[in-house]
Design brief:
226 residues, alpha+beta, Arc Repressor Mutant, subunit A, four-stranded antiparallel sheet
Length: 226
């Protein structure tokens, strides 16, 4: 599971500057308030979004209703790019965690630019192949790693992506997440995540500061090798 969407950020970075400029010149401005949905799984896939400001979460729901957060995306990331290739309905639900400002690139615009420069399609295919590798790794983690390791992996990824040093050996995770969100990232039940997080809280390995998690002793919550 990717916390900051590195693969999605690669999409624009891999394109020639003039191609990116053509796409951005025709992009529409979109805003979402915190908690507002950008799109839901099953919605029409009519284009992708580039994040200029804010924070988005990408999640899936199983048939039983269980939620799994696939990624937390920051400015510079692209979301919904699958629809540029196949035009099929959205495969996941994307919601703003913070007030967000985005630019929307329609599939019609993408198709027009691709007709002029086939390199664009090759760049998108490379990013999607990377996403598939990330998905395979996440599945392996879910199937073979103990539950405590999965929660540790989620916390470590959050620390890497959103961590801010606040003292010797202390790292504040600068994004507010509930225990249910961390459970959805790790692919475990909320009860399991709560038990593990509370264990670390009692031991002083992590703390809560104004609603944010703070890693007090990173070595104590390191995930075991997968």
């Amino acid at each position: 599971m990717s916390q900051d969407g590195p693969r999605s950020a690669e999409l624009l970075a891999s394109l020639p500057g003039e191609v990116t400029q053509r796409l951005m010149a025709r992009a529409a401005q979109v805003r979402r308030a915190a908690g507002q949905t950008l799109f839901m799984g099953g919605d029409a896939g009519d284009g992708c979004y580039v994040i200029d400001e804010g924070l988005l979460k990408v999640e899936l729901a199983s048939e039983s209703g269980a939620q799994r957060i696939l990624a937390i995306l920051r400015p510079g990331a692209v979301v919904g790019e699958l629809s540029l290739v196949d035009g099929k309905p959205r495969s996941a639900t994307v919601t703003a965690l913070r007030e967000s400002r985005l630019r929307f690139i329609s599939r019609a615009t993408f198709d027009e630019v691709v007709a002029r420069d086939p390199e664009l399609l090759r760049a998108v295919a490379a990013v999607l192949a990377g996403r598939l590798r990330d998905t395979n790794q996440a599945l392996a983690t879910s199937n073979f790693m103990p539950v405590k390791g999965r929660v540790a992996l989620a916390m470590s990824a959050l620390m890497e992506s959103f961590g801010q040093p606040v003292g010797p050996g202390r790292t504040l995770i600068k994004v507010k997440l509930a225990q249910g969100d961390i459970a959805a990232m790790a692919g475990v039940s909320r009860e399991t995540a709560s038990r593990i997080l509370n264990e670390w809280l009692r031991a002083g390995d992590i703390s809560r500061l104004a609603g944010y998690y703070c890693i007090e002793r990173a070595a104590a919550i390191e995930a075991p090798p997968g």
